[in-house]
Amino acid sequence: MKSPKRGRPANRGPVEESREDPLIRPCRGIAEFEACIAVERAVWQSSDVDIIPIPLFVVASETGGQVLGAFHGTDLVGFTLAIAGWRARKPFLHSHMTAVLDGYRDRGIGRRLKLFQREDALARGISLVEWTFDPLVTKNAYFNFMRLGAIARRYLPNAYGITTSPLHGSLPTDRLVAEWHLRSDRVLRLLAGKQVIPPTAKKAVRITIPGDVEALRSSDPSRAHDLQSAVRAEFLKWLGKGYSATAVKKTKIGMAYILEPGSPT
């Protein structure tokens, strides 16, 4: 795993790993923002009411946020949209949306977008990026915790309301808030090629997500809702006691979140 070069802002030039890999660079202009929306529609298949519109892409790009694209030739195949925020007297980025077209997934593009995001943020003096993700989608949890080094200390029940995206299956949009502390030892170890080792302390707790939960959204919505409610209760209980989700680990029936006391970064 190669660590990105430090000290070079994203807007000084694109990052390209090989001739066959998509080019990662900032998106520029209305036409490229429209291409982002086309990817958004293809991935989430939402109605217009839930589509992020062009003006937000413009605002993000003009006010310290990010609109980063993955380009295969002239075609946009993935993007990341982040808006600038301010918390505890420090700037941070809220990475609202990252999407990669179906034919380009599982090729490392999402991770390259995030690493490019990190490089650009650090070059501007920003050391924290946050985003929300569905705790029931354990593939995303693995990516966030074990590939990027994020942690989670907040759980937002029904953060965005019931959406029109079939991916959400008409369930409440419960979300964990991923905190990506860009200079943390956890992140630096991962960038150096080392693994995140799930905590084994006696005080660590597990919240297990069955492997079939995503299929239940369409096959058995009532059961999926009950499972979501149980998971929500567990997260609110332990996060409310000062625990942090720091890793995930495969189990016989799916994937378990590992939570440990305190707020490690």
Structure write-up:
It contains seven helices and ten strands. By secondary structure, the protein is an alpha+beta fold. The protein has a single domain (10-198), classed as Gcn5-related N-acetyltransferase (GNAT) (Aminopeptidase), CATH 3.40.630. It has a seven-stranded mixed sheet with strand order 1-2-3-4-5-7-6, with helices on both faces.
Q: How would you summarize what this structure contains?
A:
This protein has helices spanning 29-44, 54-62, 109-123, 138-148, 185-191, 213-219, 221-240; strands spanning 23-26, 66-72, 75-87, 90-100, 128-133, 151-156, 175-181, 205-210, 243-250, 254-261. The model is unreliable at 1-19 (pLDDT under 50).
Main features:
globular, Aminopeptidase, single chain, 7 helices, 10 strands, 32% helix, alpha+beta, disordered N terminus, three-stranded antiparallel β-sheet, 29% strand, 265 residues
Which fold name corresponds to the CATH topology? Aminopeptidase
- The CATH architecture assignment turns out to be 3-Layer(aba) Sandwich
The CATH homologous superfamily is called Gcn5-related N-acetyltransferase (GNAT)
The count of strands amounts to: 10
Q: Mean pLDDT score, rounded?
A: 90
Give me the side-by-side strand order of the main sheet.
1-2-3-4-5-7-6
Q: Can you tell me the residue ranges where pLDDT is under 50 for at least 5 consecutive residues?
A: 1-19
Strand content range:
25-35%
User: What Rg is obtained from the alpha carbons, in whole angstroms?
Assistant: 18 Å
Helical fraction: 25-40%
Helix-strand makeup class: alpha+beta
How far do the termini sit from each other?
21 Å
